[in-house]
Amino acid sequence: DDLYIVDSLEIPTADPQYLLDLARYRHWGRSVLLVDVNETPENIGTAAAGLKTINLIPALGLNVHSMLKHETLVLTLDTVAFLEQK
């Protein structure tokens, strides 16, 4: 299982297919958990809402069960800083 750190979760479109293609291009695997400490960008929230393989949660909601349920964990830099303070 993989861990990726990204600058932000901003994507140029709310099209779910774009998000699926991005995950495939980056080799994120079959199930992805995206975590952001800031307010969720609108495009990625809309794109992920209809997908069963990509989930989006706030950093405060991150738990072991959610992490183990997904093949890949994608955190923003701000989320990493937030978790380091915990």
TrEMBL record:
One of its GO terms (cellular component) is ribonucleoprotein complex. Keywords: Ribonucleoprotein, Ribosomal protein. SUPFAM superfamilies: Ribosomal protein L4. Pfam families: Ribosomal_L4 (PF00573). The keyword Ribonucleoprotein applies. Belongs to the universal ribosomal protein uL4 family. This is Large ribosomal subunit protein uL4m.
